[in-house]
Amino acid sequence: MDGFFGQLLRIDLTTGSISVEPIEEQVFHDYLGGKGLGTYLLLREIPGDVDPLSPANKLIFVTGQASDTGHPAASRYGVISKSPQTGIYAESYSGGHVAPVMKGTGYDAVIIQGASTEPVYLVITEDGVRLENAASLWGLESYEAEDRIKAQAGLKNAQALVIGPAGERLVRFACIKNNYWRSAGRTGMGTVMGSKKLKGIVFSGKRKAAVHDPERVKALIKDLRRIGRDSGGVKAYFNYGTPMMVSMLNEVHSFPTRYWKQGRSPWVNTLSAEYMNDQMKVKSRACKGCFIACGKLTEVLQGKYRGLTIEGPEYETIYALGGLCCLETLEEVVYLNDLCDRLGIDTMTAGNLAALTIEAGLQGRISGAPGYGDAEGIAKLIHSIVKREGLGAVLAEGIKTAASRWGMSDQAIHVKGMEPAGYDPRVLKGMGLAYATSDRGACHLRATFYKPELSGIIDPKQIKGKAELFVDYEDRLAIFDTFIFCRFYRDLLEWEALQELIEAFTGRAYTRGELKDMANRIITLTRTFNLSCGITRADDTLPPRFFKEPLGEHGEHSINREELDQMVSEYYALRGWDEKGVPPPGGGSG
Fold it and tell me: Which residues of the chain have pLDDT under 50?
């Protein structure tokens, strides 16, 4: 099938063996690449009862059919495994400049299995694979590790993935980092790398998979760029990036604040995109080939953090570290963002855990906790997590462990062990469905359903029939993930555009119905894996506090169990699963 090499690279870190295996063409017909291919391989390769930190767990790196073609949306790679954070299906994606050279090595997927006894790194090129000693890199923070590993590899135009100290010390929500500030951030994929003593991977390659209709691909890319020039959404991302969501969510009482007790922050004016553009030096940056350029290279110009420069902070980091922890200025968020990046931990989980710890201290459950608004205290807490010292030793095991240890399981905000994004489901009820049913724990990206709820496409309070629109969004973005397209192209690439692109890249014409069937197959595979990990319908729910604690001055924003259960039941039926969320033999409706 055009668009793919039909090759899988397998590397066993226990034995040092390296092999190349064919991927049957039917697999690409049924699942395409990216998430589709990776999830197929996950079900084939990893038993549901495997210990995520054991050598038996595997890391599956994937690209898509457009990854090496210059398509503006296709600058992302994916990694799929079993999560050490949640114990279920794990997927994480990262942008930057890695995906094209990863695909350029000539493989559609790379499976890394086993575990080394000593620190190592991999060099993967179109000419072969090298396994190198990483003793001199072990312990380095992510920025220096990335620079050093590329220098040691000695390859022109190479790109690298690395872990920081958090991954080495098996903090369960460690990231994989690339291009300094880009992260495969959620579900603990850096932790799996650390469990294998794998400090990093260098990729270098210029191979090209055959494209069915190169001229058509060029024309479709040209059309996309033309449409993008007139898009208000593209202009907004270019000018403000994701921090533009701070003011928007705060206005509708959905900017989580003071550990999910409030929906509005009194410091919104100093956490917003407008503040960032006015008070900091900001330059737009793009992933490879992208014209949206949502990344913001930001330099702090005043105060104790003057001169600090990062790409960011993104909205989710601002909500988690700024809103939940009641920080008063964006400069403080930048400071903690930089610390998390260097150490290699997910900022969203770090902010949620810090706020939980603050609450535990205020309630007298623990001693030594920072207070709300204490950026330096939170920084010390983050260091303690990575060092696994004091309170950090508990927090490093994740929110379920910390909440249980401190008697706060009824207060902790998470679904299946992963904390939600900054969209409160008491206001945006479709996000409640999204968090409850997401295959990797509470997640906003599987359907980005905040978009139709905020834009007025569907009433945020609507319950009946909401699952139908949700499934359509989730299906389309599952197809996005077979390309590993950036989510910010969702308004530019509707179903018809995806059909045209797939035919131009692969030569295979799919109807919209066939693509929806494919999406359902992929999502049903993730469900099948999670069922093998012990997930049941009882896990497809929200934290108890969301049902008990309404938001707003008059409690006008709420969600109840009956509303969520109705949406979940409708979702299951649309997927072709039974009332317990179990697909029939052979899959769901597709």
Answer: 590
